[in-house]
Design a protein that fits this description.
Elements lengths: L16 H18 L3 E6 L2 E2 L8 E2 L13 E2 H10 L6 E6 L10 H5 L8 E6 L11 H12 L7 E3 H11 L6 E6 L9 E4 L11 H12 L12 H12 L4 H26 L6 H10 L15 H14 L10 H14 L6 H9 L3 H18 L2 E5 L11 E7 L7 E5 L4 H21 L6 E6 L1 H4 L14 H4 L1 E6 L1 H4 L8 H16 L6 E4 L1 H5 L1 H9 L6 E4 L6 H9 L4 E5 L10 H6 L5 H12 L13 E5 L2 H13 L8
Parallel strand pairs: 1-5, 5-6, 10-13, 13-14, 15-16, 16-17
Antiparallel strand pairs: 2-3, 3-4, 6-8, 7-9, 10-11, 11-12, 17-18
Length: 641
């Protein structure tokens, strides 16, 4: 929206209907000459005559029984929209019956400009409601003066309506929007957001890609553009040059402009429900169907959204797919995590504008099997193992949340090789059952006693062509939550407490909710047990080293916490703990991403992937649901085979 001069017209006790109408016409003509957006605010008294549906604005000489003495608000909105050159109209109506100001849309689309215009209305009250004390105008003024915390660069009508509805009581604040203008570059907006944290338009990913593109183009500027306008100018300049280098610059600039529009869209559409946690989970969901890993940026908040959009726009495209396909997948993932409807008009309009309606539909379709895969897990339990041995039987279930999941017992030789062969057999058994449910199996839970937790890494079991963890998210669980531990024959006791701990941890913000044990802590066995007994550890517990009695220590700790971490090597340095903060919201599946990156890396330099240096036993709320079901069934033969 271009910046223009503004004229303020105040109605007073002696302002007549004619003066109001003349001022409205003058404002529309001025906006038309300047090709500017026109903002009309009606504050004062309004009425709806019996038998009509339109709002009339009262001047000093208005008589309610004489319509010709009042200002027909709807008519003047339509007339103003018809003024040649007006780049859209915003109407602010703070009167009784304000919603009656909405014009007949047939008049808007069938006027002189044949619908090639834009209209946005904010209305203080419903058609049959009074408006009190100009509270709508006062709260709107306060909002524009203070800005919107966590919002986008501008305050648009949808954002204003959302905040006004929380402030203006006993009135139904309404919004109406129409956009028939095919060449508009941005949505209608009311003001710059004063709380918008002004950062550079582009993040590090965009700057790196642009620098690389500009380096090969002789006509390029010496510096990367730092604003939306400069980026647009760069795109237009590159379009005028037929060289291949210019075409590459044009492609990068165009992708970034589309990404900036997507960021603005996310703010309007999912912003009220969007947090760093949801962004990280959406990013995790962008993995390929084979689970191919990628590094989620360490940034948070608005910076993380920018980095994800830039990554999707510039670096996630695969051979043969359109440039906007990854961006559409990101939007669908954000919608899924925030429970925001991708069929929302704002999302559909964005897709139409950037020519990506089909890509958006494809992204929605791709997430259907992903959602189904998340709801089905193969559970492999080694609870038949004695204190130092491997089991001679595995219990396996394919759990989809039902109370009667398919179950099978698989006999095996009581050694590592025999168990690993049985794991491969369990996978073969489960895959056709998963296909019957129209999904591919991705999640695998391996339930282990503590002596095997300390020595065995089930994700590295070979199950045919690949290791189990290559295409499956393997999560290690502890048998104690199925069968009890440390003399607690009823595991529901420890599981009930674990639920409370998980809820509290989910409510924490900032650093990962982990309490770390040093070597000094684990050496003092009686003191550690006492701290456990008095509730000294109510969060996840991390062991920063690998003690000789790791199995016994895990047995003690897992009774008191649902999550325990320990290093694969001798110790886990304190400076590496921050990797948990940036990854916590996508764990435990995020461990598998880290392991895969380690497996596929050309170097085994551990500092490059500290998350891969950790082992974990992880019990989430979903797993505790299965534990409850197991507790109900374990004394009977109710499992299907």
């Amino acid at each position: 929206m271009p910046q223009r001069e503004c004229e303020l017209f105040l109605t007073g006790r002696e302002t007549t209907q004619q003066e109001v109408e003349d001022a409205l016409r003058k404002a529309a003509q001025r906006a038309g000459r300047d090709r500017a957006t026109l903002i009309l605010a009606f504050l004062g008294h309004g009425f709806v005559p019996p038998g009509t549906a339109g709002l009339y604005y009262m001047a000093s000489n208005t008589k309610e029984d004489e319509l010709s003495s009042a200002v027909n608000v709807s008519d003047f909105l339509v007339q103003s929209l018809a003024q040649n050159g007006v780049d859209g109209l915003i109407g602010l109506v703070d009167t009784c019956h304000a919603a009656a100001a909405a014009p007949n849309m047939k008049d808007v689309v069938a006027g002189i400009r044949e619908g090639q215009t834009r209209l946005g209305l904010l209305m203080a009250a419903g058609t049959h409601q009074p408006a009190h004390g100009l509270s709508f105008s006062r709260e709107l003024t306060a909002l524009l003066q203070s800005g919107v915390a966590g919002g986008t660069a501008v305050v648009d009508l949808a954002s204003a309506k959302y905040h006004l509805r929380k402030k203006v009581i006993c009135q139904d604040t309404g919004q109406l929007s129409f956009d028939g203008c095919t060449n508009a570059r941005e949505e209608l907006w009311l003001a710059h957001n004063r709380q918008y944290a002004r950062r550079g338009t582009l993040g590090p990913i965009a700057e790196e890609e642009l620098q690389g593109a500009l380096a090969g183009w002789q006509e390029a500027r010496p510096e990367v553009p730092g604003s939306h306008t400069a980026l647009l100018e760069l795109k237009e300049k590159a379009a005028a040059d037929p060289s291949a280098a210019a075409a590459h610059v044009h492609e990068v600039a165009d992708s970034l402009l589309t990404g900036l529009e997507a960021i603005e869209l996310v703010g309007r559409w999912a912003g009220p429900r969007l947090k760093t946690k949801e962004l990280r989970r959406a990013a995790h969901a962008l993995r390929s169907p084979t689970g191919a890993p990628w590094n989620v940026p360490d940034s948070t908040g608005t910076d993380l959204l920018r980095d994800l959009v830039e990554f999707a726009a510039l670096r996630m495209r695969t051979i043969g797919e359109s440039a906007t396909a990854p961006l559409c997948r990101l939007l669908v993932a954000i919608g899924r995590e925030t429970e925001s409807d991708v069929n929302d008009s704002a999302v559909q309009e964005w897709a139409t504008t950037v020519g990506s309606t089909i890509e958006l539909n494809d992204a929605v379709q791709q997430y259907l099997p992903a959602q189904a895969a998340d709801s089905v897990r193969l559970i492999i339990s080694l609870h038949a193992a004695r204190s130092t041995d491997w089991p001679d039987m595995l219990d396996v279930w394919l759990w989809d949340g039902s109370e009667q999941p398919p179950h099978r017992e698989i006999r095996c030789e009581p050694h590592r090789s025999g168990v690993e062969q049985a794991v491969a057999e369990a996978l073969r058994w489960s895959e056709p059952l998963a296909r019957d449910r129209r999904t591919e199996l991705r999640g695998v839970d391996v339930v282990l006693p503590t002596h095997l937790l300390a020595t065995w890494e089930p994700e590295q079991v070979r199950t045919g062509l690949y290791l189990l963890g290559v295409h499956h998210d393997v999560v290690v669980r502890w048998t104690g939550r199925l069968h009890g531990s440390n003399g607690l024959s009823d595991p529901s006791v420890i599981n009930k407490h674990a639920r409370k701990q998980l809820v509290r941890m989910a409510a924490e913000s900032g650093a990962a909710p982990v309490d770390w044990l040093t070597e000094a802590d684990t050496r003092q066995g009686p003191a550690l047990r006492q701290r456990l007994l008095v509730g000294g550890y109510e969060r996840a517990i991390g062991i920063d080293h690998r003690p000789g009695d790791l199995g016994d220590l895990l047995e003690a700790l897992l009774t008191y916490t649902p999550i325990v971490l320990w290093p694969t090597g001798k110790r886990f340095p304190e400076e590496h703990r921050s990797c948990l903060t940036s990854s916590w919201d996508v764990l435990p599946a995020g461990f598998l991403d880290a392991y895969r990156r380690r497996w596929r890396a050309e170097t085994d330099e551990h500092t490059s992937e500290p998350l891969a240096d950790l082992r974990a036993v992880w019990h989430d709320l979903e797993w505790l649901e299965f534990c409850d079901l197991f507790e109900e069934r374990r004394t009977t033969d109710h499992w299907s085979t």
